[in-house]
Amino acid sequence: MTTVLAIGTKKGLFLARSDEGRATWSVTGPHHAMNDVYAVAFDTRRGEPRLLAGITSEHYGPSVAFSDDLGATWQEPDHAPIAFPAGTGAALARVWQFAPGPASTPEVVYAGVEPSAVFRSVDGGETYELVRGLWDHPHRPDWGAGFGGQAVHTILPHPADEARMTVAMSTGGVYVTADGGDSWRARNVGIQAYRNPDPYPEFGQCVHKVAQHPDRPDRFFLQNHHGVYRSDDAAESWQSIADGLPADFGFPMVAHPHRPDVIYNFPLQADVMRFAPGGRCAVYRSEDAGKSWDALTDGLPDDFWSGVLRDAMCADDDDPAGVYFGTRSGSVYASRDEGEHWQLVGEQLPDVLCVRAVVV
Amino acid sequence: MRLPSALRSRAEDCSTVDVRVPETATLADLLDALADRYPALERRLRDEQRRLRRYVNFFVDGEECRRLGGAATPLRGAAEVQIIPSVAGG
Predict the structure, then answer these.
(1) What pLDDT is attached to residue A96?
(2) Measured torsion, CA atoms of residues A309, A204, A98, A163, in degrees rounded to the nearest 10
(3) What's this model's pTM, rounded to 2 decimal places?
(4) In the predicted model, what is the mean pLDDT of residues B48-63?
(5) Which of A18, A47, A95, A152 could form a disulfide with A112 if both were Cys (CB 3.0 to 4.6 A apart)?
(6) Residue of A60, A113, A126 best to disrupt the B interface, most CBs of B under 10 A
(7) Chain A within 8 Å of B51 (Cβ-Cβ)?
């Protein structure tokens, strides 16, 4: 088996490949050099996995490229694959997220973008149309922008019900649809809004990432801009699971591919101190759905004054699962034993924005 | 229209592109015509609302269009439009 790790960075896409049980890695790239790559995804519903990349040139704007041979060759439509309709007055800034739809809709791919919107593709991710229900939501004029921009950065299609989907944005919070995107409801009860006069508003929370396990689709795990939460009722309400973590700030939240109670997180000290606590690089894992947490540090560095962004951590679907993360200082680490031990995949890359892995 | 090297692959590897437009045409009209012929090029010069991309400079007969009329800058005779990316980024 071969494992491919796509590493989206500030200046292009790098591809790490392991043909030896994830023991050694070789890195190629940059692909799409000098484009920032905020979003990558492997769509494994196809015969050959399709690699999707959201690429943005500072000069020439955003685009979507895809590869059906794991990055050996790339295709890019002549016409803009994602474009806001004329009447909106909006222009795509960048793609923050790709999410293949459920298995029952093998050609459907969703894209979360900046400014905050969701687009739907029905041709495997080559062309997209705006999901008007969310764009026309009456809350939209009051959605804000986090430091990185105003974007839908998380899309979680329900694995068995194509009408249901959960999205998250910074800032705005969590929204759900049960009718295929025609209507959306804010679902932020219990999530605290940091630096807001009303600590528990209906919407406006700066949610950083949400994770879901396909075997438990009504349970979610959420990293907020201060606050770590779980919902057991399809996002109707949220409870804190931050006890046991050294800090409740951070960006990523990753679900284990096979064990629904296992999640991974990378705490940072605070909003105003965005370093790993104590300068010690540590992934935190819970094996009981957030009731308790363990630090995983074997193979990770001390004197670590960097961070991990919201999509810069992922897991593959191998068994035992591989877990990966990339840092803002351009190092990428992998664990082939679910986080017990870590090894360096690559270093001195540009800032890592996202990682995704596939086993083929 | 003269193209920087980074964009030539979007126009059949040409460094210059001749575009015929009416005598009263503006820079926007030129880009509209370009959109029909080379959509992959045009979308890198303007966003989907047909606004000029911020970090792309359009020199019309030697003058950057934003010091003239922007996208409404008239093209006179056999105008030369040179596309030069601005100095930006890190």
Answers:
(1) 98
(2) 150
(3) 0.97
(4) 97
(5) A152
(6) A60
(7) yes
A6 near B CB under 8 A: no
Tell me whether residues A90 and B49 touch, CB distance under 8 A: yes
Peptide bond into A115 cis (omega under 30): yes
**B85 by DSSP, 3-state: which?**
strand
Could you give the C-alpha distances from A154 to A150, A172, A221, A254, in angstroms and in order?
12, 12, 12, 12
CB of A147 closer than 8 Å to CB of A202: no
Contact between A182 and A163 under an 8 Å Cβ cutoff? The reply is: no
> What kind and span of H or E run contains A132?
helix A132-135
Residue from the list B43, B51, B56 with its beta carbon closest to the beta carbon of A80: B43
* Amino acid in position B56: V
Task: Identify all chain B residues contacting A76, using CB atoms and an 8 Å cutoff.
Answer: 40
Decide if B3 contacts B17 (C-beta within 8 A). Answer: yes
Q: How far apart are CA A360 and CA B23, in angstroms?
A: 58
Tens of pLDDT, residue by residue over A274-299, are 999 999 999 999 999 999 999 999 99
B12 in A contact zone (CB under 8 Å): no
- Compare CB distances from A91 to B40, B47, B88 and report the shortest one's residue: B47
Q: What is the DSSP letter of A134?
A: H
Average pLDDT of span B8-30: 96
3-state SS, residue B23 = coil
Interchain contact B49–A (C-beta under 8 A): yes
- Give A217-227 pLDDT, tens digit per residue: 999 999 999 99
Residue linked to tokens 């295929």: A180
CA distance A55 to A58: 10
Residue A221's identity, in one-letter code, is F
**Would you tell me how many other CB atoms lie within 10 Å of the CB of residue A55?**
27
Query: Given an 8 Å threshold on Cβ–Cβ distance, is B48 in contact with A84?
Result: yes
ipTM of the complex: 0.95
pLDDT band at B89 (very low <50, low <70, confident <90, very high): low
Residues 6+ apart with CB under 8 A from A116: A134, A140, A143, A150, A151, A152, A169, A172
